[in-house]
């Protein structure tokens, strides 16, 4: 019984850490990748981050219930803990399978995601870049093009439709962030040796990034779900031991 209690407490510690990591990923997504979310102009991606935070909070709460049930040796609380683990287990399995199915159906065609990304990203770039009151969008576009080493949504030619590029006082053909070595007014020259022209647009790289994250999240969800099976087995063993002791 003592061994079971310590094993279950160790499991709860790992479970807490997992919940903390999930919450941290959600917060990191909102803080560090919020610029990209604003570029996509879609609630789906921000909702995914909030779901991660909520899931992490539920896991932490479940861990607290598990510790209380283990330390106080309360069979009724152990039952509650078991069903909480079971619900989270089923949700993670479903989420992992759906993420995998979505990845398989999406890659390599990704028609629905492709259309949404292409439309939102290009419209945002050409209409809002370097416009008054859209400083956050401008910063996000510059960060995107530099981080992914790309230029434009589909290609660098997208910038020819930009409101900012078409301004008579503007001397650039593309933003300076398209340059391989950014400097003031380097966007006046759009030769492949100067800008990310042959590397393609940002849409492909951003799409690949999102799909790779989707695949990883699906694999992690299924992996953690099977780890929870160990926790449920330990809960059942402890419950049975406490039941035998009561007789």
Automatic annotation (TrEMBL):
Topology versus the membrane: Multi-pass membrane protein
Keyword NAD belongs to the record: no
Keyword line: Cell membrane, Glycoprotein, Lipoprotein, Membrane, Palmitate, Transmembrane, Transmembrane helix
Example of a GO cellular component annotation carried by this entry: plasma membrane
Major site of localization recorded for this protein: membrane
Record InterPro entries: Tetraspanin/Peripherin, Tetraspanin_animals
Compartment(s): Cell membrane
TM ranges: 7-29, 49-71, 78-101, 216-239
Similarity annotation: Belongs to the tetraspanin (TM4SF) family.
Stated name of the protein: Tetraspanin
Name of the gene: LOC112238842
């Amino acid at each position: 019984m003592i061994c079971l209690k310590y094993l279950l407490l160790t499991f709860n510690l790992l479970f807490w850490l997992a919940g903390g990591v999930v919450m941290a990923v959600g917060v990191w997504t909102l803080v560090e990748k919020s610029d990209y979310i604003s570029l996509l102009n879609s609630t789906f991606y921000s909702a995914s981050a909030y779901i991660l935070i909520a899931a992490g909070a539920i896991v932490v709460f479940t861990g607290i219930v598990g510790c209380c049930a283990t330390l106080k040796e309360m069979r009724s609380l152990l039952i509650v803990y078991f069903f909480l683990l079971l619900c989270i287990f089923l949700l993670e399995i479903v989420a992992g399978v759906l993420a995998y199915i979505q990845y398989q159906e999406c890659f390599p065609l990704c028609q629905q995601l492709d259309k949404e990304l292409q439309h939102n990203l290009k419209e945002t770039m050409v209409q809002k870049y370097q416009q008054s009151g859209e400083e956050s969008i401008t910063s996000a576009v510059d960060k995107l093009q530099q981080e992914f080493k790309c230029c434009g949504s589909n290609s660098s030619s997208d910038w020819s439709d930009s409101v900012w590029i078409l301004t008579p006082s503007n001397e650039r053909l593309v933003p300076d962030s398209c340059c391989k070595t950014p400097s003031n007014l380097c966007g006046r020259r759009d030769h492949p040796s100067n800008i990310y022209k042959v590397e393609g647009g940002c849409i492909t790289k951003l799409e690949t990034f999102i799909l790779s994250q989707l695949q990883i999240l699906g694999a992690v969800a299924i992996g953690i779900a099977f780890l929870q099976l160990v926790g449920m087995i330990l809960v059942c063993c402890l419950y049975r031991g406490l039941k035998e002791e009561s007789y």
